[in-house]
Design brief:
Elements: E1 2-6, E2 14-17, E3 27-33, E4 43-52, H1 60-83, H2 89-102, E5 107-117, E6 120-132, E7 136-141, H3 148-161, E8 165-170, E9 180-184
Length: about 180
């Protein structure tokens, strides 16, 4: 028997149910938000955790970060296992997007991140490669080696968007685990 535990949510527009493989007894129900800072791009926010009777209540964000990161890395490894190094970044992004879709992991692709300077929005914006489950920023690279500017780019996206977790994935390596950097603000 399942029971639910709710968390308060502001700015709710519509709700959707998302099933994540690898979440054990947990099924996250997400609510789409349309924050004005993201120019109407839908963002999924976990609000209800369903669990088996008798299990201890947990904050869905605790489960979400660790499990979503694990699922993203698993999907990236599958893409790298299929193609290996040597392709363009855009191809890896397309393939990773497809793999996330096959694994039923929600994500936004090429998400616009507006720039605000001293209280005024500027006519320019940044683009995130992927925002997975509304909590993990994924920056995809296909370069000979990751440079400090790549890490700075990901950290800037995370700071501007208010996300605390990011993955920098370089597909141009023989073994993918050597090309993954997890960053936390």
């Amino acid at each position: 028997m399942l029971r639910s535990s709710s968390l308060p949510v502001a700015f709710t527009v519509t709700s959707i149910t998302l099933w994540f493989k690898g979440f054990g007894d947990y099924v996250l129900r997400a609510v789409e938000r349309f924050p004005s800072a993201l120019l109407g791009t839908p963002i999924c926010l976990p609000v209800v955790v369903y669990r088996r009777s008798g299990s201890a209540p947990r904050d869905p964000r605790e489960v979400n970060d660790a499990e979503v990161t694990r699922c993203i890395i698993g999907a990236a490894i599958e893409v790298h296992r299929t193609f290996g190094p040597g392709l363009l970044e855009s191809i890896y992004e397309e393939c990773l997007s497809r793999e996330l879709t096959l694994r039923d992991i929600p994500f936004a692709r090429q998400l616009f991140l507006p720039i605000e300077y001293k209280g005024q929005k500027l006519d320019c914006s940044l683009r995130l490669d992927l925002l997975v489950a509304s909590s993990v920023v994924v920056e995809i690279k296909a370069v000979a080696s990751l440079e400090p500017i790549h890490a700075a780019q990901l950290l800037t996206y995370m700071k501007l968007g208010g996300w605390r977790l990011g993955l920098l994935i370089n597909f141009n390596v023989p073994v993918l685990r050597d090309g993954i950097r997890r960053m936390i603000l």
